[in-house]
Amino acid sequence: MLLDPSVPDATTSPEAHWSLDLSGEWRCALDPDGVGELEQWFRRALPAEAPTVALPGSIQHQGLGDPVGVDTPWTGSIVDRSYFTDERYAPYREPGNVAVPFWLQPRVYYRGAAWFQREVEVPAGWEQRDVVLALERVHWESTVWLDDRRVGTERSLTTAHRFDLGRLSPGRHLLTVRVDNRAVVDVGPNAHSVSDHTQGNWNGIVGALSLTAEPEVTIRRVRVVPDVAARSALVKVDVAAGRGGAGVGSVRVSARRSNVSGEVPGEHEAGPVHATFAAEHSRDLGERGLTAGGTHVDVLLPLGDDALTWDEFGPALYELTVELVTDVHGTEHRHVARTVFGLREVGVEETQVTVNGRRTFIRGTLESCVFPLTGYPPTDVGSWRRIIEVCRAHGLNLLRFHSWCPPEAAFVAADEAGFYVQVEGPVWANQGAALGEGRPVDAFLFDETRRILDAYGNHPSFIMMAHGNEPGGRDAEFLASWVATWRAYDPRRLYTSGAGWPAIVENDFDNIPDPRAHRWGEGLESRLNGRPPETESDYAEWVRARPRPIVSHEIGQWCAYPDFAETSRYTGLMRPKNFGIFADFLSQAGMADQAEAFLHASGRLQVLCYKEDIEAALRTEGFGGFHLLGLSDFPGQGTALVGVLNPFWESKGYCTPEEFARFCGPTVPLARLPRRVWSADEEIRFEVQVAHFGPTPLDADVRWHLRDTTGTEVGSGTVARGAHIPVGNGTRLGPVVVPAELAPSPARLTLTVTVEDAAGALFENDWDLWVYPGGAAEPPAGLLVTSEIDAAVASAADGGTVLLELGPEDIGNDVALGFTPAFWNTAWTEGQAPHTLGVLHDPAHPVFRHFPTEGFTDWQWWELLHGAKAMLLDELPPQLRPLVQPIDTWFEARRLGVLFEAKVGRGRIMVSSLNLDASGRGAARQFRTSLFEYLGSADFAPAGLIEPSALRSVLR
């Protein structure tokens, strides 16, 4: 709710102003030993030599703090502590060269108290009003003195700190604010509200800083409860009366509809365009309740039969003004409050979320308070508009704020855009913290929840809330009460106990981690690693087992290689010294020139996995939705490079928003394919499904197209004409039968399904398929195929041509080779498999002449990688580059290979640790065919010579 204190009292001139902006220069003194209160620093001006800082801002961003050292007291868990002992990290522990691998590193670090002080000039005419100091966002605890009087302490991480300074004499006063960023309450060391994993444990004040002279009687809170069916809103006004006693008065409520106009060049600010609609209503307070404590009044505001609703497709906003006029002992007082609201109701229909009665599929990603330039969240609307525009361009409709609550500006931007938000309390009570055990965090969470709902509850974008993330302790028992309490207090949104767990009966929806393609600890047994590729899997059994909507918790977590070119973007507080370490490791392994190729190849595999993860959710009829982890990179927890975007919400160059939105959006065509690899003599059979969560049902033509790599269409057909597609994802059409022998094989073909409605709107999605000829692969004459290294060495030494096939039992390293890229990252997961990020290869190399590929891991590689083992090549000549190279995790940067060629003695050898078992496996059979063709040709002419001892080193 936005209070407007600038409206003058009726007894004063219209030119009077009742608010002072306190932004600007403040003197600052650090108090690491906590002696300032004991020494009463507030009684006198801070020393002249004390530095000045600009507020709003943080001290660290302005260079105040200590150099980062090995013993820096970070806020956040460090799972892999090898940094402190491993000799590899010894150079990065040296004074003056300290660099940590587990998160972004601030230029300076400070944890403790900081004192901010300035003089304020109280205007004449303010002496009959109470003066309030408001600090929009403080990290973390603030204590205020005016002159030598202690005013009080606030400790909210989510809403403004407000201090009633009382009635002040006109003239100059000394205002002192002490901010302490140490843990006031144990909300969990990894909570994104406080942790060095993301925003950093900053100290300061950001957003609006103001002094306001308030009238005797004020509007304390306005809550707007929309009624979509009645096209009205119940405006609930709480009035606070000061020391003047009883009185009479009236409340006038008015609203007008506003729509957001286009951007203003340069400013990127949108201005409201007011329509002709206006509604107002008033209510007398009477003498019944206006006592020294205040009163409340409810005003029903009709909006008209043509009132517009608010949602992701039509975000109609209403600007509400509440004017309070009171007479207390013959003196008139006026106060005005302004807020926005939307005619919006969120609910549940069976197992899906509804917005204004229409089924909605949640397509969310996390915002974890990652702002590397400042180290603290922006409080301007423009910054949040940009983030939301990026998310929407990728087909998303929700931001989940993981264990923190954003500033007012984020809600404003989301309201304008019709974008949904899930807000959480500033709590991740785990890793030592816990809920429901009588610790201070229990009361703090309830206090913070009330503050969040009171401050931001009118915003229509605020449709979901969780207490925080992944709790520990007596969480189910405690959070059952939390859900029930706040649903009763403010039923305008859906509540769930926590992001991750527990799934309790009190929840409106369950935000759980089980229905996703890869879960914690599954490793190489996860669906995408352990089962052949297909596009039929869904989570129907989870929907049947739950009476509430399920929104999958943190799906994806697929890593890409670091983008070392990104480091130039870090021009503010945070520095990517972790990237410097990883670049050094890569250079030491002789692979620095491959960094960009590693990024692209791993990134394309990442996109491939996100596509299947999202489509599995969309295929599940009655499913509630998902939260990605994530669309953008997460810089902490060991360095989790899980986004197709970097921490600045910018592209990393291997995926466009348009590509992502093909499989992630309000309307997505889906193909249910039993497999990805087919024989040329087989018909390709599949079923079409449409996940349609647009504004209205569709009547559409549905078609399929099959194209080769040149874009030439080799087949097409109509699935349905004029098909009625209701809102939901239960529409299935087909089966579709694609005739055999449509194109020469082997080939990579792209299946595209289009949905075109009567108005010409086109939705399309696509899937790559591989079609191979039948027949067994035969080795060329003179080729020795063996799994015995001694026989291979002996034959090559005599001038023979050898294919050495090594199985996982032959290779003794601990590299876990998977199909998917690493999950989250190997440091935070304590080495969970897989350890690799796909394979890199040159698709133009003749070994792939009969095995179409694009240089990165695609679905046809699954058979070759499943059950395979990577070889360590660090004892081979550095100039030897494998033909197929697994990309190792950036923490290790080992030279790996699964296929390489070399000269041994007078002969030639190809060494493979791929799974080349061709029995019933079309892709493996075809690769074996292509490999044999190459080994029998003149193209097989390895340039590098290796010694037998070096060859044997790959077995360790």
From TrEMBL:
Matching SUPFAM superfamilies: (Trans)glycosidases, Galactose-binding domain-like
Taxonomic lineage is:
Bacteria, Bacillati, Actinomycetota, Actinomycetes, Micrococcales
This one is known as beta-galactosidase
Q: Which family does it belong to?
A: Belongs to the glycosyl hydrolase 2 family.
Q: State the superkingdom.
A: Bacteria
Signal peptide region: none
The catalysed reaction is: Hydrolysis of terminal non-reducing beta-D-galactose residues in beta-D-galactosides
- PANTHER family linked to this entry: BETA-GALACTOSIDASE
Report keywords, A-Z: Glycosidase, Hydrolase
Matches recorded under Pfam families: Glyco_hydro_2_N (PF02837)
The yes or no answer to whether the keyword Nucleus is present is: no
Q: Which ranges carry the Glycosyl hydrolases family 2 sugar binding domain?
A: 22-213
EC nos: 3.2.1.23
Which ranges does the record mark as transmembrane?
none
